[in-house]
Design goal:
Shape: elongated
Largest sheet: 9 strands, mixed
Number of helices: 16
Number of domains: 3
Radius of gyration: 30 Å
Length: 484
């Protein structure tokens, strides 16, 4: 296998985040009753005229600007002719030339090294409907047509054939999805069909410039599936060539359960689609002012935000990676930090509470961070109370449970449960003296050099104080008394 190298290109379809479809006013709601979100336009009734959704155009341009594309000011549409069993009109409204965005770039990191992947284009098109295959009684098989997805807006992004491994493809799709979500252009939910990927795979002898015979794997619906399919298809192609066989250009399907690709059909080319201008959508030009207005709306992107979090907040790469994995999490972190009394001291503790306690609760209840019962303001209060010594870390977890369950203010929870930490040294000294008197064995072991023995005495102090004694003060007093 070392005599060959893999070449991969991706065609990524992402559902544009609009409330209505790209050429009509029907809802894009997921999971609605079959054929309930339809009208004369998306069901292809004779004489129905499509109307372009402005928000869809804006979403694609913002994506292009975030990925360093050239935005083409001329906007035209074409009909892509093909037999579509799930599109009654038997053509798809799309863009041929020019696309809305040309010649972009996306940098990915792999094994500590940066690779810049060139992207050919992003264009706007409509989705097809959905066939539901049923097995009826008496062995009568039939298919049902659901047109709820018909005419939903898609942006198709096409890379150059520059990816060279399954892992690079995974990193590219992960970074792309993060950026597109940051912009709000697409939810990229693969389980809801809002992000799909066609993968073009070929192999060639190491050192050869010409591309090998390309095989397309259609409609991948998970990023891990893309990685596995590329790995399998690479091995399959090399095996064919190593036996002296010949590869054919074809379209294949990925069978995830079997872990193999299967031949679907010979690969069609652009000529098979018979593109011609869409007569119902008049070409138009995008003003510079419109593009610049959208440029101003592109937020700080994940990579830049990660670098800033590390520099400004002294976070580790791991913490910064997690906190910027979505715009909502990054926004929540900064809102919490801005609400805290001391940014410098609280930056790391806040990161820890979000990535562990809060994230664990949200995952368990299937919620996103924007649905968190714990507000950023209340989390900031909780961390401040810990830093000020008002409550211990152990108490804080009890308080947090109540905050999450009841959307409560931490100070209210502390008052109701009587969880105020004891920091009065006079009171703690008395408890420490009692614990020392009741722990002769642990005292002897500590004085004999077994310093870990102090843990038993600390535990007794915490038990006597019902967990409310300040642990730092307890340790200080015990060491002072035991080393006399």
């Amino acid at each position: 296998m070392s005599n060959y190298e893999t070449v991969v290109g991706l065609e990524v379809h992402m559902q544009i985040n609009t409330k209505s479809k790209v050429f009509c006013e029907c809802s894009t709601e997921f999971g609605a009753e079959p054929n309930s979100n339809t009208c004369v336009i998306c069901t292809s009734q004779p004489g129905a005229i499509p109307i372009l959704n402005k928000k869809a155009v804006e979403a694609i341009i913002k994506t292009g600007l975030a990925l360093n594309f050239t935005v083409n000011k001329q906007c035209t549409f074409a009909r892509k002719q093909y037999f579509y069993p799930d599109v009654p009109k038997n053509y798809q409204i799309t863009q041929s030339e020019p696309p809305l965005c040309s010649n972009g770039k996306l940098a990915i990191m792999l094994d500590g090294k940066e690779k810049v992947v060139n992207i050919t284009r992003i264009h706007l098109e409509e989705d097809a409907g959905k066939l539901v295959h049923e097995i009826g009684s008496r062995k009568l098989d039939y298919s049902l047509l659901d047109l709820n997805r018909a005419s939903i807006g898609l942006m198709e992004l096409v890379t150059e054939p520059e990816l060279s491994s399954p892992q690079e493809a995974l990193e590219f799709l992960t970074e792309l999805r993060t950026i597109v979500r940051y912009i709000g252009a697409s939810e990229c939910s693969m389980e809801e069909g809002k992000m799909r990927c066609d993968v073009n795979v070929s192999v060639r002898p190491v050192g050869q410039k010409e591309l090998g015979t390309r095989v397309e794997i259609k409609n991948m619906n998970s990023i891990s599936g893309v990685k596995d399919a590329i790995a399998y298809e690479t091995e399959r192609q090399i095996e064919v060539l190593s036996r002296g066989g010949k590869l054919v250009q074809e379209t294949r399907l990925w069978e995830a359960e079997e872990g193999i690709t299967k031949s679907m059909r010979s690969k069609e080319g652009a000529l098979d689609y018979r593109y011609f201008p869409e007569p119902d959508l008049v070409p138009f030009n995008l003003p510079d002012s419109f593009i610049e207005e959208l440029r101003a709306q592109v937020p700080e992107l994940p990579r830049a935000r990660r670098a800033r979090f590390i520099k400004e907040y002294s976070l580790s790469e791991y913490d910064a990676e997690f906190l910027t994995s979505s715009k909502q999490i990054a926004d929540y972190y900064e809102e919490t930090l801005n609400a805290s009394e001391n940014k410098e001291l609280s930056s790391k503790p806040i990161a820890n509470w979000i990535s562990t306690e809060l994230n664990g609760k949200l995952n368990a209840s299937g919620k996103e961070i924007n649905e968190s019962p714990v507000s950023s303001k209340n989390l900031a209060k909780l961390v401040t109370l810990i830093l000020n010594g008002a409550i211990s870390g152990k108490m804080a977890k009890t308080v947090f449970e109540e905050m999450y369950e009841k959307s409560a203010d931490p100070e209210t929870v502390i008052k109701e449960k009587g969880l105020v930490q004891i920091s009065d040294e006079t009171a703690i000294i008395k408890i420490c003296e009692e614990a020392i008197a009741e722990s002769p064995k642990a005292v002897a072991e500590f004085k004999a050099g077994k310093e870990r023995a102090i843990g038993a005495i600390v535990g007794l102090v915490m038990k006597k104080s019902k967990g409310q004694a300040n642990p730092q003060i307890v340790n200080k007093i015990l060491i002072e008394k035991l080393k006399v």
